[in-house]
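Hi support team,

I've been running sequence recovery on a batch of backbones for a student project. Most finish fine, but this one hangs at about 90% for roughly twenty minutes before it completes. I'm not sure whether the input is malformed or the queue is just slow. I've pasted the structure tokens below so you can try to reproduce it. Let me know if you need the job ID as well.

Thanks,
M.K.
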């Protein structure tokens, strides 16, 4: 490997490492955004993220490459993005950070299955093994949790729904990545998601108990995990093999749990830790076993960012 290639690899790994830190701030910031509703939080962070990407475009002196014919397409694309983030943020109101992150990170399972269904990409034998382990981890996480309640189960269901939506969101990103420049795609996606979220956000406005911390938390959610985190993640994908980028990105689960404990005092149960570890093991196997036609590993590109 040449010196320039080594430097690019190191830069790409550094990008995804910083991106994971930004992703991991999402659960704590979401909790701090109370008493705003999940609709308001998701809408607010999408608007902030769109303006963040717009700022990147201005600084980079790039123009938005979109035509009128693209608007209806992104209106549909934006729905998958809106649902992914809305369900994820909503899940944190009902279940623990450990459960929510571990279940949302089953997204590669759905990416693999949807890629087979819609993109004709075969599921290799090792991936089926990884899928089985991931499912077993989810079963351990949700079926043997001593603190499990109907409310917690509902939150877990929302997190799984978020993972499914992220699967569709990722397949769209994978299919459209050659059609639009990265920043144009991200801006259009976040703006379209904000359009979908505007009506429920405006009809569920919070009028009491609003604090400066809650407002700053929403601003931070748009800038850190979404605007900066997703941009760095995708910058890494352009320099490092997607398999390794996605493997590093799974550490959002670890980071989110640690930050939740440090800032919110939310200590995960032993069962939650065990279930999360088994689930992540399954995801790692799915990613590592992903192969292209030449037999080299080719982990799935998860669209314009990670799950946070």
């Amino acid at each position: 490997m040449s010196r320039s290639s080594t430097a690019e690899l190191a830069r790409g790994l550094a990008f995804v490492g910083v991106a994971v830190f930004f992703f991991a701030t999402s659960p704590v910031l979401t909790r701090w955004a109370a008493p705003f509703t999940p609709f308001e939080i998701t809408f607010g962070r999408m608007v902030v993220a769109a303006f963040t990407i717009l700022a990147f475009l201005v600084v980079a002196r790039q123009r938005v490459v979109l035509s009128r014919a693209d608007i209806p397409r992104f209106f549909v694309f934006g729905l998958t993005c809106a649902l992914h983030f809305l369900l994820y943020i909503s899940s944190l109101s009902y279940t623990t950070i450990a459960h929510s992150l571990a279940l949302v990170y089953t997204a590669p399972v759905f990416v693999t299955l949807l890629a087979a269904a819609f993109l004709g990409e075969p599921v290799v034998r090792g991936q089926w093994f990884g899928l089985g382990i991931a499912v077993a981890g989810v079963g351990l996480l949700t079926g043997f949790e001593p603190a499990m309640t109907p409310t917690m189960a509902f939150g877990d269901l929302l997190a799984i729904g978020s993972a499914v939506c992220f699967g569709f969101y990722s397949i769209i990103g994978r299919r459209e990545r050659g059609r639009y420049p990265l920043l144009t795609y991200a801006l259009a996606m976040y703006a379209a998601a904000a359009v979908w979220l505007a009506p429920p956000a405006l009809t569920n406005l919070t009028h009491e108990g609003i604090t400066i911390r809650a407002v700053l938390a929403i601003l931070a959610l748009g800038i850190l995990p979404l605007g900066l985190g997703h941009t760095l993640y995708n910058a890494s994908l352009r320099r490092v093999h997607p398999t390794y980028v996605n493997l590093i990105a799974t550490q959002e689960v670890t980071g989110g749990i640690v930050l939740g404990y440090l800032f919110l005092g939310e200590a995960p149960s032993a069962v939650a830790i065990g279930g999360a570890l088994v689930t992540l093991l399954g995801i790692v196997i799915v990613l590592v076993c992903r192969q292209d036609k030449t037999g080299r590993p080719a982990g799935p590109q998860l669209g314009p960012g990670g799950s946070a």
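--
Follow-up from support: It reproduced on our side and the slowdown came from queue contention, not your input. Residues 244 and 255 are 17 Å apart (CA to CA). No action needed from you.
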